[in-house]
Design brief:
alpha/beta; OB fold (Dihydrolipoamide Acetyltransferase, E2P); globular
Length: 172
Amino acid sequence: MVRSGVVFLLTILIPSVIMPAPDAGVTSVCELSKDLFAFQDKVVTVRGIFYYGLRQQCPQKCTDGLWPSFIDLKGANGLSWADLAKALREVESEAKATGKRFEIWVTVVGRLQTIVRPSPLGTCDRKSWQLGGYGHLGAFPSQITVESFRDIEIRVNKNSPYDYANMYHGAL
């Protein structure tokens, strides 16, 4: 009797331990940036444009400046940037040769950190950002420690604000 109870219990518990959690879905940078604090220290799957981090032009606007739709990317130990670096080299070379505008769309999976705190004024309240952001000069309100990149896609977009032909690669 006890043995059959243990076997029954193991039959229920083992699949729940072995089975991966269902995919929570892919969100856009715009959707994520609506409430960065809600995703603090959580693993997220985000799709956006790779250009000095992960970005997206969002329809939302702030009266005093840009909507904070940009996220710094930091690689986790063992992360390979090879495929993304290859796409960047190809786009940069083609952009310089042809003058075309491109966008490198990528899905990023990783853990989000943010300096943004909840505010009754919403995302546009820069005072909720606190000091000491992420990335170059601490300008990014959040950062993803990337575990993986997937679905890298290069798109031609003549109206893109991202200029891969003039990317800076040197020291300041």
